[in-house]
Amino acid sequence: QAGTYSVGVTNGVGGTSTSLDLTIPEKPNVVITEVMSSEAKGAKDALFSTEDWWELSNFGSMPVNLQGWRFNDDHDSFESAEVITNPVVIAPGESIVLVNDMTSDDFRAWWGPQNLPVSLQIIPYPSIGFSSSGDAIYLWHATASDVNDTVASVTFAVAPMGVSFNYDPATGAVGVLS
Questions:
Q1: What is the pLDDT of residues 116-173, one digit of tens each?
Q2: CB atoms closer than 10 angstroms to residue 45
Q3: What is the pTM of this model?
């Protein structure tokens, strides 16, 4: 349980006492809040076609550094997972976008810069495309050693072309069509 605990240790009979404080941080409350797995290629601008993208939001009260965190659409192994190699800090109440095979500048141009907050972090990654016939996203903390120890995950069904799946705060699930 999160909190600060004092731990005391005595070394033998009549020995020296040592104490220390152990702080256990709260579990990051990050949620996958939107997934696009079947974009209508060229629907917004013939110059750009986008790949898959997903949004991650921090509903917690502390900033979260995602450096070293892994994500994949395959729950069976870390081997093919993408690793966030740069320090990406997601503030409380902030959402970031992770986009497959597209630069941040191209993603902004495709959406229209006026439609996105200037401060929006867009994190490109080179692989892990989602299937339009249904797929999943699994997100692991940098220290996870078991594939079942996910921080966040979603599964989604057949994706209508050009429609994303959104997070529903009432149910806590992704699946509402945009």
A1: 999 999 999 987 878 878 889 999 999 999 999 999 999 988 877 778 889 998 888 8
A2: 12
A3: 0.82
Backbone angles phi, psi at 163, to 5 degrees: -120, 135
Burial class (CB in 10 A: 0-12, 13-18, 19+), 157: exposed
Q: What is the pLDDT of residue 40?
A: 54
Task: Describe the chain by its helix, strand, coil percentages, rounded to 5.
Answer: 5, 40, 55
CA-CA distance, 176 to 121, in Å (whole number)? 24
Side chain identity at 52, as an amino acid letter? D
The residues, ordered by sequence, that sit 6+ positions from 172 with a Cβ below 8 Å of its Cβ are 31
